[in-house]
Amino acid sequence: MKIAVSELIVSFMERLGIEVIFGMPGAHILPVYDGLVDSKIRTILAKHEQGAAFMAGGHARATGRIGACITTAGPGATNLVTGIANAYADRQPILVITGETSTYIFGKGGLQESSGEGGAFDQSALFKPITRYHKVIERTDYLGQVLKHAAKVLLSSDSGPVLLSLPYNVQKELVEDDVLDAIAFAPPHAGRRRRPSADPAHELARLIEAASHPVIVAGYGCIKSGAQDAVAQLSERLGIPVATSLKGKGALGEDSPRSLGSIGVTSDGRAYRYVVDHADLVIFLGAGFNERTSYMWDAGFLAGKQVVQVDSDPAQLEKVLTADLAIDGDIHEVLNEVLAMLAQSGAKPKSLDRLPGHPAAAASGGQAKRTEDFRLMAQFFARLAERIPQGAMVFDDNIIFAQNFYKVAAGNRYFPNSGISSLGHAIPAAIGARCMGGGPTFAILGDGGFMMCGMEIMTAVNYGIPLNVVVINNGTLGLIRKNQVQLYDGRFIDCDFANPDFALLAKSFGIAHRRIASEAELDELFGSVDLAGSINLIEIMLDKNAFPSYLSNR
Fold this sequence. Notes:
3 domains, 22 helices
């Protein structure tokens, strides 16, 4: 039977398991939108295409499924760029559908044309560096192959954004509806796991048995592979302390006595000092040795230690560090093999004699002063961990406060703004995560970042998506002000600004507002406000001259 290409694209998305798509319609993509009317796929209208891309990314991160966004040609596509670049850096499986002018007017100066012909900008060239696969589909005779390759990339273990641009006339052409039958669809994550050989797992078990004070550095790869329980078992049975990367917070519940907390240049330094002072074996599990985790590639961090790296992405292995053992395999499977081998050999637990009372690098008067400067932020995260120990999703653009003050339990999920670390990420990403259900959801960001994405709150209002937007109100771009104090002798330029009245802004949105300037107001927030089923705008007051002491530039 013949159906329109626009209908086929909708069926393609349904077979991929896509449940929701975020975007903004335009004339050049309306045929696909019309096909979505009768689809089971839920559509969510964003306020800006960048917000739609961040929503798709947040949905993919929270659910592990394919995210999707859709826009029209020209500015609709260009407005996606930052969000898609973020998804590319984070290896998020995002299907991007964009419209295009009809092929027969390519090069003639059509409205919003992005074909690259006749002086029009080239959308394909624009997205080439930030997608795993992109295609302007100018004909239908190769449509099946394009969709087959797109599905393969989206369902692969090393995924990323896929962009399909559909000229208006092509969307309306008729094709056979059995085109999709030749495509091997599979549920997200099916068939992605690769079983490593027994030899490297055996070698890892041997290294753990021989070590006196091993340490695990657990990254997002542990969460992605579902290895949290295996990490916890290895830590508990063998007495191995666990630090996490920023994205890996919660890979081991940070309420565990063996948790060293998050490691990184913006952390309190406790995990760093333990590794440097005591560890003889450091096991990286799905953790990239990036700028934050490596303390800006500090050569002394791993000096004199044996290093193991386990990752399902071979491109990450020894990308920066030199490992004594590098294992390309699924982290969950590798750890299960190691646990079985250690149980069979009767390996004894390690001594944790150096763990109690271990001094943090900055746990001096300076750290105490820093905590006092940020007392409200510290107390906010302490209450968040205490009052919502299960089911919370936290999308965090600020990062530094949560890294140091938020103890992420195994039952909660923490999503720092990673990727390309764009301001304006937290609110739309949290909407994308929460739109299909879930527990209490928080978007935490500074007032500067809020100004980039605050209107997406109305997206949550329009669709009844519960959300807590936490704005750190200090009237400045904190990182910029910090750098200008530390590196430029307090020569301030373009860092300070006036904020709107957030109470009136919340009223105009039709949502609740809370201003937090004391611990008593924090108690009221967590004691009387519906943080699970309503939309709240919460501002936490902070002195603009209070900022962390770490240096951002080398």
